[in-house]
């Protein structure tokens, strides 16, 4: 067998074996990425690890560490305290939809979406090149990486922590 044929066969075998390998759950993917260490700690403190490792489907709007760092000083530390578990849980559930919603499935324009935190709404605006999410404070988060596929849903990476509050204008 020539070098080119051996290389081609190796590449095909690698592609086949990697496609058979599971991507992991949303929690597995987040835990394996240092950009989400604050989110992973918050999910653990809220007791949501088992839920987000479940069958789903879930769409998670996952804030990066810099988004948590942009919150007012002391906010993350306060939310992580055991006595604030309910508030932390509400903030986190505001980032989760109970569907597998890829960026291509988000309709153009501005539309309300219902996160798992049923009393709240998000306004997701999709243009030809961007997806932005307005939260209960009226501020916008940008989707900076879309469609990270997991076994139990999809992750959209965002640059702001979404906070519940008043229903955003849409």
| Neighbour order of strands in the largest sheet | 2-1-7-6-5-4-3
Mean pLDDT: 86
What is the fourth-level CATH superfamily? Answer: FAS1 domain
- How much strand content do the residues show? 15-25%
What characterizes the major β-sheet?
A: 7 strands, mixed
How helical, in percent, are the residues?
A: 25-40%
- Computed over alpha carbons, the radius of gyration is 18 Å
Category from helices, strands and their pairing: alpha+beta
CATH class value: Mainly Beta
What features would you describe in this structure?
The protein has 170 residues and is an alpha+beta fold. It has one domain: FAS1 domain (Roll). It contains 7 helices and 7 strands, in the order H-H-H-H-E-H-H-H-E-E-E-E-E-E. Strands 2-1-7-6-5-4-3 form a 7-stranded mixed β-sheet. A hairpin with an 8-residue loop joins strand 3 (109-113) and strand 4 (122-126). It is globular, with a radius of gyration of 18 Å. The model is unreliable at 1-20 (pLDDT under 50).
Task: Provide a concise account of the structure shown.
The protein is α+β, with helices and mostly antiparallel strands and 170 residues long. Helix content is 33%, strand content 23%. Strand 5 (131-134) and strand 6 (140-150) form a beta hairpin.
């Amino acid at each position: 067998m020539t070098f080119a044929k051996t290389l081609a066969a190796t590449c095909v075998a690698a592609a086949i074996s990697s496609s058979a390998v599971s991507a992991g759950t949303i929690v597995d993917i987040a835990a394996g990425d240092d950009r989400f260490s604050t989110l992973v700690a918050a999910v653990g403190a809220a007791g949501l690890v088992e839920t987000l490792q479940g069958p789903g489907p879930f769409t998670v709007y996952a804030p990066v560490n810099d988004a948590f760092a942009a919150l007012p000083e002391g906010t993350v530390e306060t939310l992580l305290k055991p006595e604030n578990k309910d508030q932390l849980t509400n903030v986190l559930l505001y980032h989760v939809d109970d569907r597998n919603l890829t960026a291509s499935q988000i309709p153009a324009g501005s539309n309300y979406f219902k996160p798992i935190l049923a009393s709240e709404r998000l306004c997701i605006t999709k243009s030809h090149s961007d997806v932005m999410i307005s939260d209960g404070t009226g501020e916008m988060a940008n989707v900076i990486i879309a469609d990270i596929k997991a076994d139990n849903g999809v992750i959209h990476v965002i640059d702001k922590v979404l906070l519940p509050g008043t229903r955003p204008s849409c």
